[in-house]
């Protein structure tokens, strides 16, 4: 039997910033909460198939790349209203620039992937109108700082594991 292994690059939300987000995920999406912490996906598996080159890019990048900030808007439903996410606003140039640098030499023009934090994943939860209304009332973060890039792996739909982390240099908040 062959294993189904997925790898991604992820920006995990700092634990102190994730309290409210994780409370929502734990209450309304316990399966997703159990397999991965709150995060923004930086690069998906098909983008990082040449992991050796990606890790080389990350090693070079993290010598100078500062931690990044992502701004978020209001919660939104997706996938026929089954899922719920906290979408980034359109002005996240740092995020798109980081993707471009990580994928340098692999993908000349990376697709414009919209940054977001999934609160309820439609694969293992359902966002009802009642849940949506409840979450709308919760004060969620509008700007988060990300200090590291994590290479993560999932085998056969199980819990995601961190394989390697690359710290970004610190800076004073804008």
TrEMBL record:
It comes from the Bacteria. One of its GO terms (molecular function) is ligase activity. InterPro entries: 2H_phosphoesterase_YjcG-like (IPR050580), Cyclic_Pdiesterase (IPR009097). Gene3D superfamilies: Cyclic phosphodiesterase (3.90.1140.10). Keywords: Ligase. The keyword Ligase applies. PANTHER family: PHOSPHOESTERASE SAOUHSC_00951-RELATED, PHOSPHOESTERASE YJCG-RELATED. This is 2'-5' RNA ligase family protein.
